[in-house]
Write a structure and sequence with these properties.
The complex is a heterodimer of chains A (134) and B (426).
Chain A (H helix, E strand, L loop, with lengths): L15 E5 L3 H13 L3 E5 L2 H10 L4 E5 L7 H12 L5 E5 L4 H8 L3 E4 L4 H11 L6
Helix pairs in contact in A: 2-3
Chain B lengths: L3 H5 L7 E6 L5 H11 L4 E6 L19 H14 L4 E2 L3 E4 L2 E8 L4 E8 L5 H16 L5 H78 L4 H32 L9 E4 H15 L3 E7 L5 E4 L1 H17 L5 E10 L9 E7 L33 H11 L3 E7 L3 E9 L9
Parallel strand pairs in B: 1-2, 1-6, 8-10
Antiparallel strand pairs in B: 3-5, 4-5, 5-6, 7-9, 10-11, 11-13, 12-13
Classes of the chains: A alpha/beta (134), B alpha+beta (426).
Amino acid sequence: MSDEHPAAAPAASPAVVLVVEDDYSVRRMLQWALEDDGIAVAVAENGQQANDWLDRSKPALVLLDMGLPLVDGEGVAQHLHGRYGQSVPILVVTADGHAAEKAAKIGAADAINKPFDIDTLVARVQRLLPPDPE
Amino acid sequence: MSSPTEVGTGHAATLHLVAALADPGRRAGGAQTLARHVGAEELLVFLFDAEVEAYLPAPGFVQTLPAGRAWQAFLRACAENGSWTADVPFPTSADRMMAVGRCGADGAVLVLLGGTPQRDAVEDLALLLPLLAAVCRGERTARDAQAQATLLRRAATDAQALAEGLDAARRELERLYGEVRAALESRDAFLAAVTHDLKTPLTAVLGYVQLLQRRVRRTAAPDTERLLEGLQQIELTGTRMRRQIDQLLDVARLQMGQPLELERQPTDLVALCRAACREHQIGSGRHRVALEAQVDRLVGEWDPLRLERLLDNLLSNAVKYSPAGGAITVTVDADGDEGRGAAGWAVLAVRDTGIGVPEADVGNIFDRFFRAGNTTRQMTGSGIGLASARQIVQEHGGTISAASEEGTGSVFTVRLPLNRGDGSER
């Protein structure tokens, strides 16, 4: 399991997506899906880990599950906004069927309900990422 | 309005009031209260230690007796003393008795309080004192006083009973409300838990399937076709699971009287029908599932996932209730409604050659949990498919109907407005 713990923050790489998801299978699947499309990924399995990671590094996007151990999705969003303002978009991913509602509540840029289509998810992520400088 | 004090004063006769207060704790205050209510020139308050006592203010007639016996003694005294009159005692409550007697020319009034006063005996007495004063002056008879007291008592008792009844009703309502709330909350919690627990693994399964499909396509290994087919089946199963979950949630909304939140977007009904027919053809070799579309595309502002479920329900039923196999035909057409221009309807029909629906049941098949009388044990079902279908159609502003002949087959016809405002707004 240690291989999937958040590593030291990648050095100022602008295109890292932080995936915050407590379910192991879903977390690995999200990581795989984004990496297959050439997107760098960092993962956190609970809200506290996510906040610790955010203290060390600024991601390009946060893919955020709402029901999380220790600190929930709302707590992560607050921490992110407190640290980086609105400069880092959040894509809410939730299984309760009210993704849009949740997103509006925490000031997220977009929302997607589980289960989702991989192509749709990747397209939504790509749309929220800043344009590739190269 | 005359106060008790005014009633008492200004009268020439000496007013003797005798009150027998059984409650020792109230005696001190009792005398003052009585004096305040009646301007009697002479107020006699006799205090007793016994729980139930009486005092008769006749010379040589001092006795301590239970109220019932005191009354008997008073009656005897009246018989002996011609100037005394006695009136019938009347119960003031289950545990108490009050009696009023008029003691002749000197205007003394006897009040007997029996039983154990559980409420404020002095207040009870004070309520009656103005009347008793009037009795003393000969303006009212003791019987009037009794009647008045009885009315007052009855009103107080009635009001108290009413208040107690209302209070009990309120408590019962609160209890029921609490139960209903708890039931609703536990069901909501149950649904949320079930949904979450099912959707999370489903997310993973569907995601991996799609990832594998992408990888296999990219590598083009020799057995990719077989692999892809298997993976497609897994995806299909996952999709079915999602549909069932969504249907459960929608039915729960229906039960709670909440509308669906339709996610309307331009949706091609012909494409949905084509996909649904293909899916059910794969699922059953016994049936020939055919689409007969009169138009290539038929686009309306509909909720695609819910129409997909509607089609799935109708086709699943067609397959399930045609156990011997046979033809299942889906027809799609636009009903132009000549004269109304572009406004019109999409008309969808699903026809099977199955067991049909008994005539007596056709009117009920869209009711939740209703299942027709000719379904067998093998034809398992929850009875929510058609109820859900009707819910979806009605939320879109459309209609659904069934025509059937038992043993021959059924036709389910759905009409959906092509224009959003058509019939869906009210």
